[in-house]
Amino acid sequence: MASRPLVFGVLNVTPDSFSDGGLWDSPAAAVDHARAMMSDGADVIDVGGESTRPGAARIDAAEERRRVEPVIRALVADGISVSLDTTRSETARLGLDVGVAYINDVSGGLADVDMAAVVAGSGATYIAMHWRGESDVMDGNAVYGDVTRDVIAELRSRIDALLDAGIAPSKLWIDPGLGFAKNADHNWQLLRDLAQIVALGHPVLVGASRKRFLAPFGENPADRDEATAIISVLAAESGAAAVRVHDVARTARALRVRDAWWGGAA
Ligand code: PMM
User: Is 119:162 a contact under the CB 8 Å cutoff?
Assistant: First the structure.
C-alpha cells in the first residue's frame, strides 16, 4: 500500500492572507487553532507571517519576527512539529534556534542568497518551492512553453544549487508551487503530471488548498475544502509526501478513506 502523506496544517499569522488572513493574528488564537488542527490529524503546523497572495506587498523582517516568534515558541514548547514558511534567512535562523523542523521557502532559496547556508547543517528539512518572483510580479511571469517541463527544469536547477550549498539530499523537499506564477491550466497540468515531479527523487509537498484555481468548486475560499481534500487524495496517489491544507479534518478524513481503499485501517 502506498504510504500516507503528511498533513501540514496552514497557520497564517497575517492580517492579509487570502483565505484566513486576520483570523489568527493574536498569538493565543494562533496557538489554539494549531492545537485544534493537531487534534484534527495534522502532522506538522506550517506557520507563516508574511502573505504570499498575488499582489501582496512585502513586510520587513522585524514585523515578520514579531508575528511568528511567539507562535513558533509556543508550538515547539508544546511538542508540535513546526514548519516555518519564510523566504528570509534571518527569520529561518530564528526558527532553527527555536527548534522548527522544516523551513518552507516559497522562493526555493531565490529570494535570499543566504538561505541555503543557514539551513544546511541545521538538521531541519528544507522545502524548496518553484517560484518565479515576488507576489507583486508573479502573475506576469506565468508564461511557459510546457509548464511541466519548465517547472521540472527550474526545480532541477534549484536542487543542484541547494545541494551545492550544503543542504543534505535527504533533507531537501520540493514543491511545484501551485498558483505561484501559474494560471489554472498550469496548476491542473502540474497536478496531472505530479508523478514526474515525484520522479525527481525528493519528497514532494503539494499546496492546492483553497487556491483561486479551485473557484469553479467554491466561490469563497472556505467553500473549496472538499475540492482540496479530493486533491489531497489524488496527490497521494501520485506519490506526494505531504499536503499543505487549511481544513485539516477534511483532508485527514479523505486520506483515511484512501487507507481503507488500499486495505489499511479505516
Ligand atoms: N502556498 C502558499 C503559502 N505557502 N508553501 C508551500 N510550500 N507551497 C504552497 O503551495 C504554498 C506555501 C499560499 O497559500 P496560503 O495563503 O494559503 O498560505
Answer: no
| 201 Ramachandran zone, left/alpha/beta (phi>0; psi -120 to 50) | left
- Nearest CA, atom 8, ligand 1: 207
Active site residue 93: no
Answer yes or no: is the C-beta of 19 below 6 A from any ligand 1 atom: yes
Q: Can you give the pTM of this predicted structure? A: 0.95
> In this structure, which residue's CA is closest to atom 11 in ligand 1?
207
> 208 with 178: CB under 8 angstroms?
yes
In the three-class reduction of DSSP (H, G, I as helix; E, B as strand; rest coil), residue 243 is classed as strand
Quote the CA–CA distance of 192 and 131 in Å, as a whole number. 19
Give me the amino acid identity at 8.
F
Rounded CA-CA distance 209/206 in Å is 9
Residue 258's contacts (CB-CB under 8 Å, 6 or more residues apart) are 4, 233, 236, 237
Alpha carbon of residue 218 to chain centroid: 21
DSSP 106-117: TTTTSS-TTHHH
Look-up of cell digits 515576488: 134
pLDDT in tens, 65-104: 999 999 999 999 999 999 999 999 999 999 999 999 999 9
Q: Which residue has the cell 483532508?
A: 251
